[in-house]
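[step 3/7] fold_predict: job queued, chain A
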Amino acid sequence: MKIITKALLGAGALALSAGFASAQDGISACLITKTDTNPFFVKMKQGAESKAAELGITLKSYAGKVDGDHDSQVAAVESCIADGAKGILIAASDTKAIVGPLAKAREAGLLVIALDTPLDPADAADATFATDNLEAGRLIGAWAAATLGAEAANARIAFLNLTPSEPTVDVLRNQGFMMGFGIDVKNAADIGDEDDPRIVGHDVTNGNEEGGRKAMENLLQKDPGINVVHTINEPAAVGAYQALKAVGMESQVLIVSVDGGCPGVASVKDGVIGATSQQYPLAMAALGVEAIAKFAADGTKPAPTEGKDFFDTGVSLVTDKPAEGVTSIDTTKGTELCWG
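[step 4/7] structure written:
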């Protein structure tokens, strides 16, 4: 197998049939992630590379410089088409704007699979392998509400989101949290149209620590009484904790997040994050590579999980402080499972 990793410039459980595990000579596939630094996408890449090596597929990996680097993803799609790849696995930075370039890929005969982040519309991909991000958000929202108990009625909540373009993963986790917490979401496809007085405000983090720190600082200026923080992912959560610690508030605020990576589970164990929803990017990417190999072999496209419009790769709430009525696993189990 040939593995090619490219740092892009700013421009521009499926079953395999008997004997299918033999080398797939001449088959190539592309993995396009948002960044190559976020641990979530690092693990996703590992899963794709391992499965590609097992199946004898050439994998080319592309990543933007930062979360939200849409132009790099467009350039990657164009490269995949030009190289004659059989399929593209993509975690899209801009779930609407990437639809046009991916339509060209599908017209060229490539199988397009969205990983983690559904496209907008979802059927712009041939299939989606993802966490149920709405459920991931609901779990951490329900945990936060149950942990606060009666005081949930007086909560002061900060939302640390992803990017201004509001990719689907951002919307789903955000709105899921609100549903779990007991907030009227109004239009579930939109962030920020809610009128619940407990919401202090929203800011964006670009999914990294520095962005989380700055967003937390901004919202603390708006309301220093914040006591609940929803973060799009664990790097943003760590940044939020740093900002809170700088003003002596780290023990007064519940931080919840989504990802469940090994560093994130460690942050839960250490008390930095109260609870996180664990997803499984390694399996997600491995299944995607299997699907491309199957498509190349006989034209079969993957089917969604029954009752859903995507292939659900699972989610578990990880916390060492279980709350009544919210199913969870502890950090010992979360460490065993982190990003399988």
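[step 5/7] annotate
Residues 281-298 form the longest helix (18 residues).
The first strand starts at residue 3 and ends at 7.
exit 0
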